[in-house]
Fold this protein.
Amino acid sequence: MTEPEVIVIGSGPAGLGAATALARAGRRVLVLEREAQAGGIPRHCGHHPFGMREFHRLLRGPDYAARLTKAALDAGVTIRTRTTVIALHPGGLVQITDDAGPATLAAKAVLLATGVRETSRAARLIGGEKPGGVLSTGALQGMVHLNGQRPFRQPVILGSELVAFSALLTCRHAGIRPLAMIEPASRITTRSPARWLAAAMRVPILLHSDIIAIHGRTRVDGVTLATPAGPRDLPADGVIVSGRFRPDAALLLGSHLPIDPGSGGPVIDRWGRLSDPAYFACGNLLRGVETAGWCWSEGQRTARAILAALQDQLPEPAGARLKLAHPALRLAVPQVIGAGAAGSPHDRLQVRLDRPAKGQLRLMQDGRVLASTRIDSLPERRLSLALPHGLGPGPLTLTIAEAP
Amino acid sequence: MNLADQPDKGTGFKGTGFDVAVIGAGVVGAALARAFTLDGARVVVLEKAVDVLDGASKGNSAILHTGFDAPEASVELACIREGYALYHDIRDRLGLPLIQAGALVLAWTEEEAAGLPALVAQATANGVTDVQPLTGPQARVLEPALSPAVRAGFRVPGEHLIDPWSAAHGYLLQALANGAALKRRTEVLAGRRSGDRWHLATTSGEVSASLVINAAGLWGDEVDRRLTGESWFTIRPRKGQFVVYDKTAAALAGHILLPVPTKVTKGIVLCRTAFGNLLVGPTAEDQDDRDHATVERATLQALMRRGEDILPALAGHEVTAVYAGLRPATEAKEYRIRTDLAPGYICVGGIRSTGLSAALGIAAHVVRLAGRSGTALADPIWPRMPNISVEGARDWQSPGHGGIVCHCELVTRREIEAALTGPLAAGSLAGLKRRTRVTMGRCQGFYCSAELARMTDGHLPQPMVGPSHD
């Protein structure tokens, strides 16, 4: 293709959602994907339900990924797979490498849609040895759905977010029978009906419990749990370490673009724009974690902001950096909030907690409450707050007035 | 199938006719194999594990020490000094990295500060003459992220960072390239001396050699017993736990940050790694178990707090990896190197935390002890190790790499394929990680495990996954 107007990094639902919308509006779009196939994480979620928002029907993950890819190609998007972005430079210069070696590409706008990954066993400081057979859900699903392999027969699953139940479905598909699901908190994290799946598969969910140690030198041959009744050993032959998603912001780390320590993703304004106005971001890179449909929709909306930018119709970057003023608050996106952003992709503030909290979530300016909503929530659950249009120039604060 | 599975093919292994049998393929065994091979000997290396570097050598702090704090006039000091010089001599030709970091030895209490002059004097006596005493503020000029609580210290410019695995792999690869043989999954069960030769009974059959060297690390005393009927020392493994921080933390410390050492341990070190991370550790925990090295959350958290005491800005940086290593400590501090236990037998035991720095020196020392009358190789082959450190070009920078498989560490398909073939092909997933860094980065295998399981299928004796479910 001739030089692209927009480069999209990442071909998951967010990246393809944006790329398709941009191409349909007549723009030359190049999507860079480091894997061998486009489609992102849904490629290896071999279960339903995907696609309601986008295609108005229930699809399995791989079929959904294939449809998203086809829609993008049909719209005229160029997708370049097995191409890894190495570095981002000011003004939309992107350094890549593929089998042909390193090269530099340029575009008027670059959209970052590199997604999320789960927090590793190491980062959670789980004790014990380091045998094979300790996998994230992502790794498990890759092995099962892309390779047709069965990494273990009776693992335990750590976590109870939606993805833990996705792991459970993957296990069922591969003939794997988990011994238990283990959740340190007092409640199951997800509110999805998927939670009933554990009972249907007769997999006990152990609340208030954690994995203290993983045993085995080459393969997992057991785990020790901390439970309310004291330590307990299970003869697991694997461990699925699920959830606690983190944006895959590796490209930002070595770049000129700032990272929000709360979200682990980029600092964006209501247009999805970064501090360098050549760069935009959308999808789960912004925060852990949302559904594929949410990311696709965020991509579509961010595409409209990019189209406006290409026509020099976006307002100059302005606005205050939102301050989080309560210890239970982990992240809020967008981080930079300016006034009068009609038509911007982010008309709601997306919020996540670090610990359970109950009360009023409040957006404050100069001592006034600009917006508020009642919350009674757990970490990793979706929370949001409508952003008002009329904003004064003062600093903005997000806080929680906790209920007793 | 790679070499770890194959009985004899490709290495010229016949079981007999060797001049030297080295028991143990850790960093010391690798250096011994190289030194004797270059000295003209026919060498076989016998390793009981499925891959090399599977014992004490798999987990250390990856520092090339000067020996500034080694016991004065000891064999250990002499071996570190010689090993240090030899590493500098050969590293270019073998393609081994050297990150010239320098170290700061830091005192955090008045008592520790009072001990500094004696340490500086010891360094000078040990031949490390370029140390520079520092006040607390001077230390903070060199390392602005240091806690203001630092009282005083000194700088040792010659302490450097290396890749703990490519060094040992490089030594062994050069031995193999010049005619040595390697037998993995080969445990020495017993030995007898008849005439001027040893006959070793191993799990791969009989091996005979005129000289047997025990470099069995954590199992050194056991090998002693199997060959001579008794052991003159006892290994008491000392576990060290480590925390490896994200690459974003590496900017916080240019120097290796060392505490004032005690009689028991060098203490908790904070330093960059050759791969661009920041490492804190090790602990020093005595244990009986030689096979299992576990990490414990509370200990790791204590290490992280220690790290944050030294570098307050470390708080909030993500942890990439944690690990535990075992060092083959004995009832005494010194190296246990002896030639008088049995004819044609040299025991190289009790090489604790300085093995990586001293290995080449130990090997040179043992070659001299052996008093061989062979002829050194006139024009030895110098294989080059692929660079996976932050120093120098990486494989992804040149065409034909087949695409990147491990995205966090930028490991290419070509690098992985190379590590699965050749005379020193990886024998395990852990071995493949040590050779290439796959899955060693931030995501710890979230993205690339599936592709890696595909690529390694049929190559490793202990596969990543079980049989297909379809």
